[in-house]
Amino acid sequence: KVRTTADASIPPHEALKLLKQGNARFQNGEPTAAQTDEIMRKELVDMGQAPHTAIIGCADSRAPLETIFDAMPGDLFVLRNAGNTCTHAEGSMVGSLEFCCGKLGSKLILVMGHTKCGAIAGATATYLANKGAEGKAMKSAGSALE
Q1: Deepest in the core among 20, 53, 61, 84, taking most CB within 10 A?
Q2: Is 122 within 8 Å of 26 (Cβ atoms)?
Q3: Other C-beta atoms within 10 Å of 66: how many?
Q4: Are the beta carbons of 52 and 106 closer than 8 angstroms?
Q5: How confident is residue 130, by pLDDT bands cut at 50, 70 and 90?
Q6: What pLDDT, in 10s, does the model give residues 103-120?
Q7: Can you name the residues that pair with 54 across neighbouring β-strands?
Q8: How many angstroms separate the CA atoms of 67 and 57, rounded?
Q9: Given this model, what pLDDT does residue 101 score?
Q10: Number of Cβ atoms within 10 Å of the Cβ of 117
Q11: How confident is the model at residue 35 (pLDDT cuts 50, 70, 90)?
C-alpha cells in the first residue's frame, strides 16, 4: 500500500517508529517494501502524496534513504544534497521542508548524516586550511570543490 492524502496524518512518534522498523528490516536483510504496480502509481497521482516523514540526507549514492528505511513511494519526502547543507533562499531545502510540513502534513523531520562523508570532510578541510587567514576564522567554510 502507498500513502496518499486519503490516509490520516501520522504523529511524529509513530513516524519515527515506522522509520526504526524499516531500518531494522533493512539491517536484517528482510525488506518488505514491494514494487509498485500501476494501481499504486495511479493512486499517488490521483490522490496525491502524504509522506509521514521529511528527511534531509546526503546525496551520496551509498546512502539511499528509501532503501535504508524500507519505504514505499509516498512514505518519505526526501531532500538530498552533498553534506546536508541548508540555506534559507528561495527554492532551498528549507522551502521544500516548509512545503512538506505545511502542505503535505508531515509531522517529523529527520536530518541524517552518514560516515565518511566526502562533502563534510572537504568543507572541514577547506575551513581549517583557511582558518588563520586574516587572523580569524572564516565566516563560512566555502566550497569543498575549490
Answers
A1: 53
A2: no
A3: 15
A4: yes
A5: confident
A6: 999 999 999 888 888 888
A7: 77, 109
A8: 13
A9: 95
A10: 19
A11: confident
Nine cell digits for residue 71: 519505504
- Radius of gyration of the chain, Cα coordinates, nearest whole angstrom: 18
Considering only CA atoms, which of 43, 42, 18 is closest in space to residue 32?
18
3 state SS of 88: coil
Closest by Cα among 71, 1, 3, 60 to 33: 71
Q: Is 135 left (phi over 0), alpha (psi -120 to 50) or beta?
A: left
pLDDT tens per residue across span 63-89:
899 999 999 999 999 998 887 776 666
Q: What's the confidence (pLDDT) of residue 93?
A: 83
Q: What is the pLDDT of residue 106?
A: 96
Enumerate helices (H) and strands (E) in the chain, giving the number of each: 5, 3
Residue 53 · residue 45 · CB < 8 Å: no
Q: Rounded to 5 degrees, what are φ and ψ at 77? A: -110, 100
Cβ proximity of 43 and 2 under 8 Å: yes
Residue 127 near residue 102, CB atoms below 8 Å: no
At 57 the three-state DSSP class reads strand
Q: In whole angstroms, what is the distance from residue 107 CA to residue 130 CA?
A: 40
